[in-house]
């Protein structure tokens, strides 16, 4: 009989999990991806991705995982050919961190970021998977629950969709879809805890850290002459004792700037177009506001409140069924400002593929081992995200521990040193881009450099070239729109 894997959700995590499963030609004969939304045939928004209109960045770790899962697909080339940008984190961005402006390095940058709209990235990955792995099939259907017992999941209860039907419209009663392995990649809105409860598995531990972040995003036409202006980021200061406000300008395909502003509880942006530029000018530095002051807006302001950090510890459940793995945002969600979500999804899918190659589909404990491997990736991103958000006023959820306070003090000191030390900055970038373990920051050499302090004095303003300063001056003097 053919061995079937079912992936619930054609998200980034879902499509890359499908690629990981389809690569195991000796283990899986067919991969069926269930997706309740109608998927666009070209880059475009979809209902099941409410945060997709805001800023997204693909980290180098995520890109490497995609290249391993879909070898030869040329996802990077597809994105660049479609207008995506590639910028080095230590050399190509202008960033005001919590402790000051980071210098732009002249060293070879080992932390390249791929910058594009989420619509384009999703389409490029989905197209690459479907073209490169013909055994992957997408079905327009919704999952209603899991089949099986607390010991083993044996499939999914589904309802098929009609072409052109809404996300909640089925064609009739549910049907049973048998599978040797089920992957839940349904994201923030996952119902897997309810499905597990129906099988008799309850008590999944959960942590929440919610700083009440609101995102406001607007797309602008890139001003003439500013096509090569670097991405600009003014971050929030979690140690400032005030609501954290931040702003980010990203060049994306189509000659556009995607501008995302954010504020924690008590400092939220609004959807009013007239408030957008003043909010940006009122950040810790007016760089973002000056850049967009005279730019032509192409969209209205779009708000999102789906920003809380939430972690489900499936890997610590006392019981876990064979035949079920949960990946991506269904495991953990993070404040989007840290740009980790897509890369964590890719890394989790890669871990599933590697575990399948090591032991085979029928090996006892495969699901538990794959869940634990995915959890390690989620933990790294979770620690960085909540390590910042838990300090903002009005945060709800888990309270900082003594260890959190000590670590925060050390990271704060290291961030200050990183503004004047390339070696410390590069080491922090390796961790924040998920290229290495956070223990790297406790290496004796870094401990010493952090204790000694920055090599260079702090910058008094953004690290811009003379041409970039001229562009900023001209844009800042433009009439507001």
From TrEMBL:
Keywords: Signal. InterPro entries: FAD/NAD-bd_sf. Residues 459-481 are annotated as: Disordered. Residues 1-22 form the signal peptide. This is Pyridine nucleotide-disulfide oxidoreductase.
């Amino acid at each position: 009989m053919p061995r079937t894997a079912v992936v619930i959700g054609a998200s980034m995590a879902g499509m890359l999990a499908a690629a990981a499963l389809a690569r195991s030609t000796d283990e899986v004969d067919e991969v069926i991806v269930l997706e309740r939304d109608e998927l666009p045939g070209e880059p475009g928004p979809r209902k099941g991705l409410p945060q997709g209109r805001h800023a997204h960045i693909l980290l180098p770790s995520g890109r490497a995982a995609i290249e391993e899962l879909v070898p030869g697909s040329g996802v990077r080339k597809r994105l660049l050919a479609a207008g995506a940008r590639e910028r080095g984190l230590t050399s190509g961005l202008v960033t005001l961190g919590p402790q000051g402006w980071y210098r732009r390095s002249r060293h070879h940058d080992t932390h390249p970021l791929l910058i594009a709209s989420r619509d384009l990235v999703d389409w490029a990955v989905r197209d690459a998977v479907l073209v490169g792995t013909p055994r992957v099939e997408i079905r327009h259907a919704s999952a209603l629950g899991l089949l099986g017992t607390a010991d083993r999941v044996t499939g999914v209860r589904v309802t098929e969709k009609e072409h052109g039907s809404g996300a909640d419209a089925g064609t009739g009663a549910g049907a049973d879809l048998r599978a040797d392995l089920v992957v839940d990649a349904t994201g923030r809105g996952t119902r897997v805890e309810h499905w597990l409860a129906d099988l008799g598995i309850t008590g999944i531990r959960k942590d929440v850290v919610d700083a009440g972040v609101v995102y406001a995003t607007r797309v602008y036409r890139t001003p003439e002459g500013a096509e090569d202006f670097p991405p600009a980021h003014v971050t929030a200061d979690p140690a400032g004792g005030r609501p954290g406000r931040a702003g980010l300008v990203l060049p994306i395909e189509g000659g556009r700037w995607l501008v995302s502003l954010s504020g924690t509880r008590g400092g939220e942006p609004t959807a009013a177009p007239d408030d957008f530029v003043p909010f940006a000018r009122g950040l810790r530095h007016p760089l973002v506001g000056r850049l967009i002051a005279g730019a032509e807006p192409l969209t209205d302001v779009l708000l999102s409140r789906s920003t809380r950090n939430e972690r489900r510890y499936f890997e610590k459940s006392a019981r876990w069924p064979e035949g079920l793995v949960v990946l991506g945002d269904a495991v953990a969600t993070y404040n989007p400002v840290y740009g980790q979500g897509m890369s964590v999804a890719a890394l989790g899918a890669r871990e599933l593929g590697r575990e399948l190659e090591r032991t085979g589909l029928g090996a006892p404990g495969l699901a538990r081992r794959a869940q634990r491997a995915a959890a390690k990736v989620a933990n790294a991103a979770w620690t960085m995200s909540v390590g910042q958000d838990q300090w903002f006023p009005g945060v709800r959820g888990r309270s900082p521990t003594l260890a959190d306070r000590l670590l925060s003090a050390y990271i704060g000191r290291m961030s200050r040193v990183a503004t004047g030390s390339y070696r410390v900055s590069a080491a922090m970038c390796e961790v924040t881009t998920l290229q290495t373990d956070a223990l790297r920051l406790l290496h004796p050499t870094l401990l010493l450099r952090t204790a000694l302090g920055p090599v260079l004095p702090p910058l008094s303003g953004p690290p811009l070239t003379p041409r970039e300063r001229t562009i900023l001056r001209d844009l800042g003097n433009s009439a507001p729109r």
